[in-house]
Design brief:
Two copies of one chain form a homodimer. Chain A contains 14 helices and 13 strands. By secondary structure, the first copy, chain A, is an alpha/beta fold. In chain A, α11 runs antiparallel to α12. The two termini of chain A are about 15 Å apart. Chains A and B meet through α4 of A and α14 of B.
Chain lengths: ~400, ~400
């Protein structure tokens, strides 16, 4: 059955507070505790004792997800059925909403020598304003290639996005980035016969770009990766009925929610900016995604104590969020990022759901091991949204 | 997604120690304890306290599996999607690797009277060397039937295997074994029109065999069951990327792993032989299946204390296995065999996964009821392999 068919509008607010990389595994150097177990989290603990707890599997058993699949699962989509290229994620992330006849490409400036050998994959880490100047130069020199429109969009540092707009574009093309310095730029090759025309077009585009860049001292080369056509994913509101707000600081997460058609403003660089935006716009929405990045960053660094700190800081923000009196508050991760692994992992996310209509598990602390005992059980993350909607009384009875 | 696509090679070793029929149910005559609860297992218990525990469902809720489906599930195959005839299992079990144009048939010698009424379904339980002599006699007298090659292969006691090799063979044919003494041999009948030709061929084969056997005092008849064409199952290494070793004493389990293309040597008759083989070949493999048969045997006999003993003996072997320092050690059953039931059962398997990157549940004993509290939760057995591969860091991140 479709959630939209059961949806009934009401004023209830659902907040998904997503602490990126929240979950961990016991660390032998820290008394075999996880970061969440080690952290002092009085606000989370009090909330947990009044909530339903559980564990959510982002994609599938043993599968470590990237942020894309992990977030689609949070938003109720089975991520195995959603295929979105990195180019599209990047394009949406910098605010470009793709149209049907477009193909997005992730592009990096790099430094090459006279034999087209890459000497610096990041063009000497040029600064954002410098990259913006060069992208502007490309924009004014290259408008189209053989009738296909070319749009250049700045990203951050050495990164930008190229949008091709025209008929019959195909994204099954190999990267031009050899992934290593000391190697030459690769030609874009078609992976299927249908992609031959687009591959030739991309090849001419690279030549045109190199020609414009030839006098640049550092950014005189370009690397292309992750070609993608417009993703074909059902809009979140069409699927659930709910008007949705996405609050995130980082382009990747903005990109994901723009693909789903959520309202995705640019409220600022800090988590505080997100909360302030939420305070003044809560009334306009039924579903709010609120992204907290810092636990993941510390986990990726392998810094146990930094992740503990990030969790404790999140705990400090909690009273402000509770003050908004959401009807349903979910606190979870998109995926785990144990500092022991210094990377995303396959371990289920500790998850908390607070609502008047959710069981009151009475479990005293919000930790991975406690979540195992919670009334939500262990479930795939893409099942969580319907439980949240039900707890907000937004889903009618199914069947007579 | 396919595990092979996420696979990344490393030196980590995964050992699946499969204690056949391990799980049980509380027995009213033994303080309502299970065999695992009753047994003294200091080594398993210590290991359990440092591992992740859980329960695995071999096939589906309430479904009692045979050894075939239960093992496919352990190896990560959804057993409902794998269909392998008993004849093929038997053929692989005795070391015959089937080819595309072959059909395997399980055959038993039996004793019949002059009216072809079966007087002993096991031919007076003839000994293996006697069976081998008669199979040799069949081999030298019957080379082919109407152009289809016939290969006879000895098994154990009164059992042997017949391989037909030729064009357009079909396995939808009825057994010739009426399953009871005092009844006559049944004719092999086609179950579908396409199998008519093969059924006629099998009929002529039975006549030819009876003619060769006519002077044998005991083994003067033959019973055919479980016709099967070559199984169409994806190779384990093609599926997972891992080079795999199978260590088992019994033909059935060797057959299963040969079908999957695992290296399946014949190291000897005892569990000790398997462990010794493992010690000297561990470095050549990434995945090792190690089969311990004796808990199942005792359970099938309905002998509670014998199963307790079998579990205690397994516990004694554990230090030797731990001494090999596998990166991931899984201890589980293929299915449960409660002595109260004297048979396989549908109850989930107690399961333990030890790895640096698995949660440390801190649960003090390895029992069915304790596994229910473990962090692996209750899951289908075919999901376990990907968790083990993830815990050995053999799976890359999926998606950006």
């Amino acid at each position: 059955m479709k959630l939209k068919d059961l949806y009934q509008k009401n004023d209830a607010k659902i907040i998904f507070l997503v602490a990126d990389g929240l979950g961990g595994i016991p660390h032998p150097n820290f008394k075999n505790l996880t970061e969440l177990e080690y952290a002092k989290t009085p606000n989370l603990d009090k909330l947990a004792s009044e909530s339903a707890l559980g564990l959510t599997i982002p994609v599938d058993y043993g599968i470590t997800p990237g942020s894309g699949p992990a977030h689609f699962s949070l938003f109720g989509y089975n991520p195995s059925a959603v295929d979105i290229g990195r180019g599209a994620l990047e394009a949406y992330g910098i605010g470009h909403i793709m149209e049907d006849d477009e193909m997005a490409i992730r592009a990096n400036f790099c430094t090459i020598n006279e034999s087209k050998v890459i000497t610096d994959r990041r063009a000497g880490r040029i600064e954002t304003h410098e990259m913006e100047r060069i992208v502007e130069k490309l924009s004014s020199n290259i408008r189209d290639i053989d009738g296909t429109r070319v749009i250049f969009r700045p990203g951050k540092e050495h990164r930008f996005v190229i949008i091709l707009k025209g008929k019959d574009l195909q994204d099954a093309i190999t990267d031009t980035d050899p992934q290593k310095e000391g190697l030459t730029l690769l030609p874009p090759n078609p992976l299927r016969k249908e992609a031959e025309k687009t591959a030739k077009l991309v090849n001419r585009l690279v030549e045109a770009i190199l020609n414009v860049l030839k006098d640049e001292p550092r950014a005189n080369g370009v690397l292309l990766r992750g070609y993608s056509l417009k993703p074909n994913v059902e809009n979140f509101t069409d699927r659930t009925g709910m008007k949705a707000l996405s609050l995130a600081n980082y382009p990747m997460y903005k990109g994901i929610t723009r693909i789903l058609g959520m309202d995705t403003p640019d409220p600022g660089e800090s988590f505080n900016d997100l909360i302030n935006y939420l305070k003044s716009h809560l009334n306009e929405y039924e579903f709010i995604y609120l992204h907290y990045k810092y636990a993941d960053k510390a986990g990726e660094d392998g810094d146990f104590m930094k992740k503990v700190k990030a969790i404790e800081e999140l705990d400090n923000y909690l009273p402000e969020i509770l003050h908004l009196r959401p009807d349903v508050l979910v606190i979870t991760g998109d995926h785990s990022t144990p500092s022991l692994l210094k990377s995303h992992s396959w371990h289920p996310n500790p998850t908390l759901l607070k609502s008047l209509y959710a069981p009151f598990d009475g479990i005293e602390r919000f930790t991975e091991r406690n979540c195992l005992r919670g009334s939500l059980g262990t479930l795939h993350a893409y099942h969580l949204l319907s439980i949240a909607m039900a707890s907000a009384l937004k889903l009618k009875k199914w069947g007579a």
